Amino acid sequence: MRVAGLMSGTSLDGIDVAIVEISGRGWAKRIRTLAFRTVPYPEDVRQAILSVSNAATHTATISRLNFLLGELYAEALRLTARRARIPLDSIQLIGSHGQTIFHEGAPVKYLGRRIASTLQIGEAAVLAERTGIPVVADFRPRDIAAGGRGAPLVPYVDYMLFRHRKLGRVALNIGGIANITAIPPSAGPEDVIAFDTGPGNMVVDALARRYTKGRWSYDRGGRLAARGHVNRELLDRLLKDPYFRQPPPKTAGREQYGAEFVERLLQTGLSLLDLIATSTAFTAAAVAMGIERFVRPRMPVDELIVSGGGVHNRQMMAQLAAFLPGVSLASSTDYGVDADAKEAIAFAVLAYETWRRHPANLPSATGARRAVVLGKINW
What number does CATH give the domain 155-335? Predict the structure, then answer.
């Protein structure tokens, strides 16, 4: 089956589009990537999304953005298919993650009840109407309804792609938030350990935009971090956050590491370059701390397989190697899975499972009471 996966993450850099061929059954599925492209958000759209993420905003703004993103997703898919010379009508299904503007996977007290919630926008009905292709979207709420955190969902696909009979592997994705999927040797899906370790690129991106006055939206290759110095006192203080001691399942987001967090960093009085260097080390140290505290006691860690934008940040990768001596460090591209496309590919696979009415969450990763069929289908 030919499926398109669309992913726009917390880094707000744009729309990732992957077109894949999926064949086979169960955990032995074969996934072949036909095309991948990132279509950047227009700056005014990025700012509009940022304004409604973790903010009290007029509902009209959210509603309009929801439908606008549906239009942009359709345009991004058409562009990707055209550039790859793939006929749009040869694609049989679309899996669209949507743009997260709020995620609170852990229940909180609200109007006398304990409620967990999540909200992704990017109207799937618009995407289905513009392309003429069925769309699976809104994957996270069903897991939350089943008692899970609604995240992470990609571990289902990580297990499918990276499980090994003899090696303990950790798949690390460094997007806006960093998350890991730990797969013990010869593991069953119920043995997978997965959680958000903390910030990925989100904090570094915000500081890089400020330092370059908007010319760069991220720290290209870690060049800015390389010019700064890691402030050990600040790094140690950041790593004392209770989140890092909280056992999984757990999720993180812009609610913890967004504008307010960056503003607190700026108030330290350190130079922007030193803050970028320290935040880069913070991401790597939080990953290492999560692995040492919650993964190593349960399995050997032989290989760390990295995907997401952070894989291109040489300083971040060097920090990971330093914090995790003895662990083989590689990009998922080295394993045949495009490091930039992996999450978009994952949502194509999750859509495929929904289409076939197969449960596709891992309760060991999300904390759900049971495995459930995810998403909603727009015909």
Answer: 3.30.420.40
Q: Is the pLDDT of residue 48 over 80?
A: yes
Q: What residue spans of the chain are helical by DSSP H? A: 43-52, 59-83, 124-131, 140-145, 155-162, 202-211, 223-227, 232-238, 254-257, 259-266, 272-294, 314-323, 342-355, 363-366
- 316 vs 338: CA distance, rounded Å: 19
Cα distances (angstroms) measured from residue 5 to each of 2, 91, 158, 350: 10, 11, 15, 9
Taking only the tens place, the pLDDT of each residue in 276-334 is 999 999 999 999 999 999 999 999 999 999 999 999 999 999 999 999 999 999 999 99
Residue type at position 331: S
Task: Kindly list the distances between the CA atom of residue 122 and the CA atoms of 18, 105, 221, in Å, as whole numbers in the listed order.
Answer: 17, 20, 30
Q: Which amino acid is at 346?
A: A
Q: Which CATH number fits domain 2-151+341-378: 3.40.50.300, 3.40.190.10, 3.40.50.1000, 3.30.420.40?
A: 3.30.420.40
Please tell me the distance from the alpha carbon of residue 9 to that of residue 138, in angstroms, as a whole number. Answer: 14
pLDDT greater at residue 56 or residue 267: 267
pLDDT of residue 93: 98
Query: Can 2-151+341-378 and 155-335 be said to share one CATH topology?
Result: yes
Buried-state track 238-248, b at ≥16 Cβ within 10 A, e below 16:
beeeebbeeeb
Q: What average pLDDT is seen over the chain?
A: 95
For residue range 79-120, what is the model confidence (pLDDT) as tens digits?
A: 999 999 999 999 999 999 999 988 888 899 988 889 999 999
Domain boundaries defined on the chain: 2-151+341-378, 155-335
Angle between helices 202-211 and 272-294 (to 10 degrees): 170
